[in-house]
Specification:
The chain is an alpha/beta fold. It folds into two domains: 211 residues, Alpha-Beta Complex (Spore Coat Polysaccharide Biosynthesis Protein SpsA, Chain A); 83 residues. The protein is built from ten helices and twelve strands. It is globular, with a radius of gyration of 19 Å.
């Protein structure tokens, strides 16, 4: 009989991070869940170490790094048979009650397809890393409360746009209905894209402040806005808008979308990044036919009007 909850951890060259995360999973007050680690082409001996030190953990070893979105889908497939799946990056430490609180929130809100914890900075425990994800019609998303002091202002459970894909619990039936993460994105925006598709299909997301996770942040790709990060953020944002926006929202907010794109172009020119920006636009244009084909599926499963969606999307 499958466990009700499967915890799937995505890791790339993160053995040193798993040495912190796995003991925190073992200390959870919730019992009886599976732990699966998807080793995304690591070269640090992660899989061998897990077999020796954590034999109770299931391991899926990928021969190469397939990107975040594809690896998250491997995590979801590994959780087949479980009603709930928690997707975790390796750079976390969970409070003992974290998983129990997330599961309880989903039980209490059957319309919720996902739930996210209060993310606190691993290094600075009095500082928030995020209190749910926010989304703006300009096509940008960010973590609510990022960098704010953890002073109680985000201590009320509530509905939010989405949860950070690196620390969230999903209802498997919602994943089945909404679909997997978009593997064409490779990395970045894949969780925002999924959250938007889920909202369009009528699934809500809960922010659960009593579920606490401490997040290192950028432990695998490194901190800062690298060209790799810029490229995937902006290319994927263009695809997300093209694929998901209802025509009414696209028509209404196109000036704002174009303004943000123009601002990014200006900043790219000032930073000497015009060649990078040109590559982003070129590759986004090349991928638009595929995004528009996927759009048909997204819009066919849409259950919310634009007005209803604006309950959780910034104006």
């Amino acid at each position: 009989m499958s466990a009700r909850l499967a915890v799937a951890v995505l890791s790339y060259d993160g053995r040193h991070l798993l040495e912190v995360l796995l003991p925190s999973l073992a200390a959870q007050t919730l019992a009886g869940f599976r732990i699966v680690v998807v080793d995304n082409g690591s070269s640090d001996g992660t899989s061998r170490w897990l077999a020796a030190e954590w034999p109770q953990v299931e391991v899926v070893s990928l021969p190469e790094n397939v990107g975040v979105a594809a690896a998250l889908n491997v995590c979801i497939r590994a959780a087949t048979g479980s009603e709930l799946v928690a997707l975790l990056n390796n750079d976390l430490e969970l409070d003992p009650g974290c998983l129990a609180e997330l599961a309880a929130s989903l039980d209490a809100h059957p319309a919720a397809g996902s739930a996210g914890p209060k993310l606190v900075s691993f290094a600075h425990r009095g500082t928030l890393d995020g209190a749910g994800d926010v989304f703006d019609w300009a096509g940008t998303g960010w973590r609510r409360g990022h960098g704010d002091p953890d002073d109680g202002r985000y201590d009320e459970p509530e509905e939010v746009f989405g949860a950070c894909g690196g620390a969230a619990m999903y209802r498997q039936s919602a994943v089945d209905a909404v679909g997997a993460f978009d593997e064409s994105f490779f990395a970045f925006v894949e969780d925002t894209d999924w959250a938007l598709r889920a909202q369009l299909a009528g699934w809500t997301c809960r922010y659960v402040p009593t579920a606490i996770a401490y997040h290192v942040g950028s432990a695998t790709i490194g901190a800062g806005m690298s060209d790799f990060t810029r490229y995937h953020l902006w290319r994927n944002s263009i695809w997300m808008v093209a694929k998901n926006y209802p025509l009414g929202a696209l028509a209404r907010h196109l000036p704002r979308i174009l303004y943000v794109q123009a601002a990014q172009l200006y900043l790219a020119a000032r930073a000497g990044k015009l060649p990078l920006w040109s590559r982003i636009v070129r590759d986004a244009a090349r991928g638009l036919p595929d995004a528009l084909r996927r759009r048909r599926t997204v819009q066919a499963t849409r259950r919310l009007t634009v007005r209803e969606l604006e309950r959780v999307v910034r104006q």
